[in-house]
Amino acid sequence: MKEILIGVLASMFFAVTFILNRTMELSGGHWIWSSSLRFFFMVPFLLLLVLARKNLSAVWIEMKKHPLQWLTWSFFGFVLFYAPITYAASYGPGWLVAGTWQLTIVAGTLLTPLFFDRIQTENGDLTQIRKKLPLKALCFSLLIFFGVILIQFQKASSLSVSEIIVGVTPVCVAAFAYPLGNRKMMELCGGRLDTFQRVLGMTIASLPFWMILAVIGVFNVGAPSSNQLIQTFIVAICSGVIATTLFFIATDRARDDQSKLSAVEATQSTQVLFVMVGEILLLSIPFPNGWAIVGLFIIVLGMLLHSYFTKNTQAKLLKSSPERKAEMRV
């Protein structure tokens, strides 16, 4: 239950991304700077956090062991996640981007068979068994996603087909890239790094890609405005540092239980609620009604079912045999 609450708190800070990215685009800011500047701003704060905990050397040691994997999965988890989201914000409203992003709650569950459990056999050898798709968790995730669709349905009628395609397709890519990069990095680190170390390592590993994008930005759109610098700095703190760290803490705590991990990833659905409230207060959009209210109710119901199912699963595990507990370890 604690992991789910942490996930909801992370979603609140993540919501800042969708609101400010949209306001930056409306004020003339370019998506290249909205995406790259966030990660440039994140580095010094994460460095200070890790240095204060006196465990920076472990990050370099782990990154030196598998440099190609760090570059690859950081690209998926950060670059292929955030660049498409900021690009989509150039063509669609914040609620459309935030709503489409909720596909990640289903994507995270569907990616489960790509990972393996390490199980010790009777003769003491370790063998790998492919993880099974958690069907109950998938059903709850689909229920939540259906609620998100209902929220978008009422507003989407005011958009053209081209706006929906350009605003939705990049976010669909990001929705699969983010959980894939996050889970692969958890698997690669194997618990040897804490959340702050892992976020710092992934941020550093993604910098070459952001530098390339920034160079393209300088030659094609010019330098960012002071207003965009300030707003991107806020996004970097709220979403890049606070939200990402909270979410990674929650997923780290749940990484040994796929149903629990799916429930944590499903907390991202609450971003729609926070974005909606933010846009009502800051951008004066109309208050939701009709199907949107039904959608909100379904999202809450899906989250409650996810929490109940996760709690019951944990209770059964505590009563299970030591052998069964060993099977659940990654």
UniProtKB/TrEMBL annotation:
- What Pfam family is a match, any one? EmrE
Q: Which domain of life is it from?
A: Bacteria
The keyword Membrane is assigned to this record: yes
**Where are the bilayer-spanning segments?**
31-50, 70-89, 95-116, 137-153, 159-178, 199-223, 229-251, 263-285, 291-309
Q: What is this protein called?
A: Multidrug resistance efflux transporter family protein
Keywords in alphabetical order: Membrane, Transmembrane, Transmembrane helix
Under the heading InterPro entries, the entry gives:
EmrE (IPR032713)
